[in-house]
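agent: user wants the full assembly modeled, not chains individually. Plan: 1) parse entity lines 2) check alphabet per entity 3) run joint structure prediction 4) return tokens. Steps 1-2 passed, two entities, 684 residues total. Proceeding.
--- entities ---
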Amino acid sequence: MEQILANGVYLGSQYAMIALGLTLIFALMNVLNFAHGQMYVIGGFVTYTFYGQWGVPFVLALVMSCVTLAILGALIERYLFAPVIKGPAREESTMLLAAGIAFFLDAVILLVFGEKQSGVPKIVDGVFNYDFRLIMPYDRILICVLAILSIVAFIGLMQYTKTGRALRALAQDRTAAQLMGVNVDRYSMIGFALGAMLAGLVGGLLVTITGVNLGMGGATSIKAFMMVMIGGAGVISGAIWDGIILGFMEAIGLALLYQYGDITYLLIFVSLMIFLAIRPQGLMGKPWG
Amino acid sequence: MQRRSLIQAALTAATLTAFGVTSALAENPALKIGFVGVTSGPAAAWGISNQRSMEARAAWLNETGGYTIGGTTYDIEIVSFDDQKDPKRAIAGMEKMAQEGIHYVVGPNVDDGAAAVRPVAESNGIMYFPYAFPKSLYQAPASNAVLGMVANYQSGPAIYKYLMENKGVKTVAFIAANESDPLSQRDGGVAAAKELGLEVVSDNVTYQVDTTDFTPVLTPVMRSRPDLLVLSGVSPANAPQLIRSARELGFQGIISTETAQDAGVLAEGAGDLAKGFISVGGASTPELASPMMNEFVDRYTEMFGEYNDESNTKVYALEYILETLKAEPSAIDDVEAFKAKMDTFEAPNPYMNGDAKLRYVGMSSFGQKRQVAVPLVVNVYQDGAFETLFVAEVD
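--- prediction returned ---
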């Protein structure tokens, strides 16, 4: 039981981090960012290059991942999404644009970083072992703590800073926020950059454990979408809670159902379908959107 | 490193295109040989070693004047298609080969891809050399596929027997990804282990193909405390993560797989934790390698900036195709002539020392000669590189 709880917290914190950036972008701009997984992969590769290849301290490499993705996110919003959103195009245009960006980023990753799995040296050696009832490598504990601290910092930013208030206002009602004097264009760009930065941050954190390869982007996006749908599209607290719920579901399923084969995700998807049929707005979303 | 390799490869390709290939093609007719396999994603290392082996060997042949079959000297042109490990794309790739009039194709790399392309290959007169293990591909009535390596049901028993006799292994656990190749390899491994008298303590734990953190997946396997953990059909991307998680969970036994791995990926992903990891290696060792094999390795390394041990096996498929065509020139457009020649074909093996022969085998496994004869080399990973554990032969 101790192991299940520990795995649940560890997986949950990872998933919450992955979902946060995606839901933030959706909340601000009503854009389903299909390229979120690719941004995560780029974050992993930037940390891999700085920390794994060039020997730069891990924290600095992590900062580089954040900065790179923030700049990339800002550029994508400014030059791609903003013109499409402002134009008379249908809403699906942003989805097609996001899918196009995902394919484009996949191609860029292949060209720049190659097709193979890449990994970095462990940031902390050793394993916490409590009588073989609870086993957790120290690096996973550290990553879990860093992920939780990042989530807390993000919530703090959203709650207690001027930027956070502006972003929340934008998420609640774009027109009203504009009427209240919020520079919508500027904060849309900041919000998208922040969402992309979160993808880069979690990619950089997890490359120390999972490594990184080109194929991880699509699978990461699917998991992130799943969490956003259950938590309630565009609801930040929903994404966090659902990350944790998904982490625990996975940990419990893997620990208790392994003798029946790989049915954990089958059950998770079935639960998701039933849940959405009953509550289509998600756990914390409002029925009106 | 990878970026540099990529740029290096691109420059090499550009240079070859601009100077070498173009001028050579102007002199000799081209003999197109296809490759359909996975060169992107988690299993990319398998297909890339195929493609690069073929390109390196073709460039070498073209540089030395081409390859003569039935009095005509050809330049060898490799036509490649990345199937992304997707059977639908593999079919599209094989159809592309058919449209280009290609009769000899290397690949695909995995079971479902190899099974998917069978109708296309058979209806278009294409012989193909998969790196996939389903026996139905090689047993009658199938006749167009030729296994390009040693199958897991041939290497697995050899590895288990070696470990039982030399390391005192008595219990074994299997873990596999939830997709066709790894699951069928797991089932084959479990059957072989039981037949040898090993106690199988866990064989029902599987993981999602896109799993990135294996600690929760491996926890129940570790509770069964096996002497040997077999990573059935594991891809080069997942192997280091599985090894790392198993070691971090306190597993001190032996870890093995029947698939080929990449030492560089293991070094990066698992570091010293991968020490002692056993896998099927490329079909060569320093003792077995002939001067021609050594030159191939040098040329490959110069061309692509790195070398994958698995290419010691992957170099053979193209050689078998060309040597068989040389022995039976009419087969260049007629795969039935190629099939007929396979039963009696024999030629010196240029990549091995001594009097080793290129010949088709497979009578005991498939009832017909539908496998290339290459030595089974089992490796153990030590300090960033593979070392030979033992060498065996299979039919």
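agent: reporting back. Chain A touches chain B through 45 residues (CB under 8 Å). Residues 226 and 269 of chain A are 9 Å apart (CA to CA).
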